[in-house]
Design brief:
binds magnesium ion, eight-stranded mixed sheet, 14% strand, single chain, 8 strands, 12 helices, alpha/beta, binds adenosine-5'-diphosphate
């Protein structure tokens, strides 16, 4: 990619909710407005990203203002970065973990319906985290047993997992979620269907931090599922990108 690359295709964006933050057209604007770490922004550049996509331009300010979000945007429009960038930015430096008066433990949780997807998110997260000492864990059989040691898991910043794996760890007493400040459900249409819903609900109710921020991302959100999603969110903003709108 070079400087002449056109921006990703523009989509129609609609928002619904109270006090919707202004969207931003450039990554630079996020940095100026929200004081994002220059390291995150330079890692973005490293990946060849020059302009935010529609969902990034609208979703990132909403998450940076600590609001709950339901984001609906077609496949391939960069939903992953729409939550990784603000979540990592809001968590601050990895070292702020130690100074935090709210204690230790996982601070951000990203749930996805399949191992492959969790793996992809993990990779994108690692790229964005380059140069910082973040502890980012892709939950698997192997990491689950490592994290059975509380002194190890207390140092983890971000966990990426499928629901089933995480519920097992919770039930085994191998994980606490009381310090989680950001929960993201990716591919929320699947996460909130009947297969995963009980597990997702169990996970969410273990996230007892009082001001926990929640966000759901999906390419589509059928009415029934959207109702479930909205009931989990607090004063949410809904962003819809593209043709799909009702
Ligand atoms: P979605 O989850 O909406 O299907 P992804 O987050 O998987 O989309 O992103 C799709 C592709 O677009 C990925 O290869 C990602 O690296 C790339 N991408 C994301 N944001 C941007 C951007 N702002 N500019 C260019 N490419 C981007
Ligand atoms: Mg995706």
């Amino acid at each position: 990619q070079d400087e002449e690359d056109p921006p990703m295709p523009r989509h129609r964006v609609t928002t619904k909710g109270t006090n919707v933050p202004e969207h931003a057209e450039t990554f630079q604007a996020f940095q100026e407005q929200y004081n994002m770490s220059p390291v995150l922004l330079s890692n973005l550049k490293q990946s060849g990203y020059k302009h935010p996509t529609g969902i990034q331009s609208y979703g990132i300010p909403i998450l940076m203002e600590s609001r709950d979000l339901a984001a609906i945007s077609p496949t391939g429009t960069g939903k992953t970065l729409s939550y990784l960038l603000p979540v990592m930015s809001l968590l601050g430096s990895p070292s702020s973990r130690a100074k935090d008066e709210h204690g230790t433990g996982v601070r951000a949780l990203i749930l996805a319906p399949t191992r492959e997807l969790a793996h992809q998110i993990h990779n994108e997260c690692l790229k964005l985290a380059q140069g910082r000492k973040w502890r980012i864990t892709l939950f698997s059989k192997a990491t689950a047993s490592t994290l059975a040691d509380k002194s190890v898991r207390d140092k983890v910043d971000i966990v990426i997992s499928t629901p089933l794996r995480l519920v097992s760890a919770l039930q085994a007493g191998h994980l606490e979620l009381h310090n989680v400040r950001h929960v993201v459900l990716d591919e929320a249409d699947r996460m909130l269907d009947t297969e995963f819903l009980p597990q997702v609900q169990e996970i969410i109710s273990a996230c007892t931090y009082p001001r926990v921020q929640k966000a759901v991302f999906s390419a589509t959100l059928p009415a029934g599922v959207e109702k479930v999603a909205m009931s989990m969110l607090k004063d949410p903003i809904r962003v819809v990108v593209g043709l799909k709108d009702t």
